[in-house]
Amino acid sequence: MGVLDHISDMFDCSGHGRSHSFKKRRPLQTVEIRVKMDCEGCERKVKRAVEGMKGVQSVDVDRKQHRLTVAGYVDPAKVVARVAHRTGKRAEIWPYVPYDAVEHPYAPGVYDRKAPAGYVRYSEDPRVNQLARASSTEVRYTTAFSDENPAACAVM
């Protein structure tokens, strides 16, 4: 009766039998990559390198901003590695955020001359974030000479 048990376990749909391990599907995500592209040939080369990947649903290339956008069930690290390997170009995850998302866009470490128009480099550096927090003495001095402060300095 061992053979019948084995066959019944293979065709068991109730879920009470042995559990088979299935690969977990990656979530749908959009990956933005910075790749330097100069001409239409570079653009085609980058696009073809990613189109054949498993799980890719759409590919968008913006040559002017040197940006490659890939949407699908993909791993960002694998997409970057594939672009770098197939094209021979340096590829990195898109390092820029919109200008409005940063409190101090001209702070050292954030401002980047190579960034596309309207973008600055994203930074998690604590020294850059310190610029956003003013100390109590700084706040006291800046508000003391403010036009909106009715008890401001009489010299003004």
Automatic annotation (TrEMBL):
Keywords: Cadmium, Lipoprotein, Membrane, Metal-binding, Methylation, Prenylation. InterPro entries: HMA_dom (IPR006121), HMA_dom_sf (IPR036163). One of its GO terms (molecular function) is metal ion binding. Pfam families: HMA. It is found in: Membrane. It is a peripheral membrane protein. GO terms for cellular component: membrane. Residues 28-92 form the HMA domain. GO terms for biological process: plant-type hypersensitive response. Its main location: membrane. PANTHER family: COPPER TRANSPORT PROTEIN ATOX1-RELATED, HEAVY METAL-ASSOCIATED ISOPRENYLATED PLANT PROTEIN 26. Belongs to the HIPP family. This is HMA domain-containing protein.
